[in-house]
Specification:
single chain; 476 residues; 81% helix
């Protein structure tokens, strides 16, 4: 009998599962990217190039801190998917309890640390003097949203681990719509609200995240979902938190390494002035769109791999890899072609300055040609992460960003005396990332990293997993 919650991804058509499971996540990603685009339009078109540059400088810092939370929630997704695939439902409840305590604690801690060190971080990034003050102000306001964003990350990962990618989409849609409405109201001070300028976009994010998180928690409790957060039994959290950290710490380092690489590269770009910073920011928006399908496909692949590895179905994992390459490679190839053919038209959506557009177009000509290469690396990385071998993907990220991209960006930009050297370094790092990831996947060593071998099936739990959860919750 199938479970009354989530989706069993250990049976049925792999390509159908990839499409139906990843599509809601892709739509959610497009929603978030659409909001990001709308926000960039408000900032770039109405507040000016300086405001857009301030947001561009702040985002790598935000993503670096978000990387810690996203890494821990990746561990949650892996543990949930493997437990769900193996029908270890009592263990799944402990994963939910441990992750909830861990994620919210991290969110509060990182908010405090970020608020204290914001000026020092932005100085270290060589932020231009004319945008330093607004960048500090914007970043400090935005960081207040961290605990609520982390909470949404955790719930989304838990739901996706059980094969439910639709519920997070619905609440993400509400969050994006609310933020989109609040943005102009708080930027320009409409309907009696204060005129906050650039900081209005940050406050809009905070309000929408708080409302969405509360609404999703209420929904899960009303539906009596097995992943509805509850007050944890702290005496039982130790082993689960240690397991989560064993997977999540490398994943957090990986996410943060990616974001810190952005910080370093943005610092190099900043050294070439405001025009270079604005061009990099506008072109990076195209990056978000181009890589979004591959990122979401990688997340779907990780969950499918986790459930099937938990169930001991290794043959289906090879099929997941093959179909992932077909879908991810095909989609990014089309987007890459569009970026190469129409770079100026795409950039005009975000900025009108012809000098900025010209420099941004050079980025898309160089980096856009490698979108498909980087997109394929998400497929093999998804399998590796699904097995719990997050240390390996962390090493690959370190190699790509810190051994290749950052040093090469610094050296090439000086040798060429142009920010275009940074563009070439990014393209080369994409290629290196794919080669390293495929090499490890082909070795098969990732199979040794399974968090826990699937035990023999328990017929009683197989028959009524929802009941098993209900009983355990009732006993609590």
């Amino acid at each position: 009998m199938k479970p009354r919650f989530g989706t069993d991804l250990t049976t049925g058509s792999i390509p159908r599962h990839l499409v139906t499971f990843s599509l809601p996540m892709l739509l959610g990603g497009f929603l978030q990217t659409t909001y990001s685009f709308i926000n960039a339009i408000w900032v770039g078109q109405f507040l000016g190039t300086g405001a857009l540059a301030a947001v561009t400088v702040s985002f790598p810092v935000i993503f670096t801190i978000f990387g810690v939370g996203m890494g821990m929630t990746l561990a949650t997704n892996i543990l949930v998917s493997q437990s769900f695939g193996a029908r270890r439902f009592d263990e799944l409840r402990r994963v939910v309890d441990g992750s909830t305590a861990l994620i919210y604690g991290l969110g509060v801690l990182l908010t405090v640390v970020g608020e204290i060190f914001t000026p020092e971080i932005l100085r270290a990034m060589d932020t231009p003097a004319d945008i330093f003050a607004p960048s500090v102000s914007y970043l400090r306001v935005f960081l207040l949203s961290l605990p609520f964003s982390f909470g949404m990350f955790a719930l989304r990962s838990m739901l996706q681990g059980t094969g439910d990618s639709k519920t997070p989409l619905y609440f993400q849609l509400g969050s994006v719509l609310l933020t989109t409405v609040l943005d102009p109201l708080l930027i320009f001070g409409r309907l009696g609200l204060p005129e906050l300028g650039l900081n209005g976009t940050a406050w809009a994010t905070i309000v929408s995240q708080v409302i969405s998180l509360v609404a999703l928690n209420v929904y899960l409790h009303v539906k009596k979902s097995p992943i509805a957060p509850r007050w944890p039994r702290f005496g039982q959290l130790g082993p689960t938190i240690r397991r989560t950290c064993r997977i999540g710490v490398p994943a957090s380092i990986q996410q943060s390494v990616v974001s810190l690489g952005m910080v370093v590269v943005t610092g190099i770009v900043n050294g070439f002035g405001e025009v270079a910073t604005a061009a990099f920011g506008a072109a990076s928006r195209i990056d978000q769109l181009a890589l979004l399908p591959a990122i979401n496909m990688g997340m779907a692949i990780s969950t499918l791999a986790g459930q099937n590895l938990g169930a001991g179905h290794h043959g289906r994992v090879r099929e997941v890899f093959t179909w992932g390459c077909v879908f991810s490679g095909g989609i990014t190839l089309v987007i890459s072609a569009a970026a190469l053919a129409f770079p100026e038209a795409l950039l005009r959506v975000f900025i009108t300055d012809p000098v900025v557009i010209d420099l941004g177009a050079s980025y898309l000509h160089i980096v856009g040609a490698c979108y498909v290469v980087f997109g394929l690396s998400f497929v093999s990385n998804g399998i590796i992460n699904g097995a719990g071998a997050t240390v390996v993907t962390t090493v690959i990220s370190l190699l790509s960003l810190w051994v290749i991209r950052a040093p090469l960006a610094y050296w090439l930009s000086r040798e060429m005396r142009s920010v275009k050297g940074v563009w070439y370094a990014i393209a080369v790092s994409f290629v290196v990332s794919l080669i390293a990831s495929l090499a490890y996947y082909a070795s098969g060593r990732w199979k040794r990293a399974l968090v826990q071998k699937a035990p023999a099936a328990d017929p009683t739990r197989e028959a009524d997993p929802a009941g098993a959860f209900a009983n355990e919750v009732g006993e609590a």
